[in-house]
Amino acid sequence: MTAIDTVDALRETYDAPGEPARKKLLSKLDKHARAFIALSPFLVIASRGPGGADCSPRGDAPGFVEVIDDRTLLIPDRRGNNLLDTLGNVVEDPEVGLLFMVPGVSETLRANGTARIVSDPAVLEPLAVRGQVPASGMEVAIRQVYFHCGRSLIRAKLWDPDSRIEKGSFPSLGRIIADQVAGIDAEAADKRLEEAYTTRLY
User: Fold this and answer.
1) What range defines the domain where residue 193 resides?
2) How does DSSP classify residue 163?
3) Is residue 29 one of the residues assigned to a domain?
């Protein structure tokens, strides 16, 4: 199988983009982007570090990402696995891509820019939840922002309740980790996860 190895060859494989697609790219957040971020409880962060490309989910109550101004966002870092993959990548390479989602809306919001990790208590304390101040925050300087059409989510039926799999039809995370890591007890791992999900979200 021959791979496409030039942009020109790739472009020949597709139709030219329409005028709206070419002109919708903005350099700052407009009122629609701000409103979408205020409604969004979930985003994915793409980053790149010494180990290569990576993506990581972030989620909290709608509007958990703070819009500082038309070109700046602040994303609190809540409790996680402490591997610091995304944060470490940003320290090495500040370029990031963000994908915001709103349940029930087929369109997504994409934002690209440069990030830095901040730990100033005065900046982070207003982002506290249940008395827990995030250990750090990711401040993103927006370079490009635009709405992405909903065809992918529509094809995936992502928000369709009928597309959900039945509980128990896929192994629990504890079971998966036990299968992947020698010496891990699946039941004990699931109990630890359940405790983390119920008492240590923040």
Assistant:
1) 165-199
2) G
3) yes
| Confidence band of 3 (pLDDT split at 50, 70, 90) | very high
Q: How open is the CA angle 49-152-22, to the nearest 5 degrees?
A: 75
Identify the pLDDT of residue 22.
85
Do 191 and 143 touch, CB atoms closer than 8 A? Answer: no
Tell me, what DSSP letter sits at residue 132? Answer: B
Give strand pairing partners of 100: 43, 109
Q: And the tokens for 161?
A: 């309740």
14-49: burial string, b at 16+ Cβ within 10 Å, e else: eeeeeeeeeeeebeebeeebeebbebbbbbebbbbb
pLDDT at 16: 92
Q: Write the CATH number for 75.
A: 2.30.110.10
Nearest CA to 44 out of 31, 32, 53, 35 is that of 53
Q: Which amino acid is at 57?
A: P
Indicate if 172 and 128 belong to the same structural domain.
Answer: no
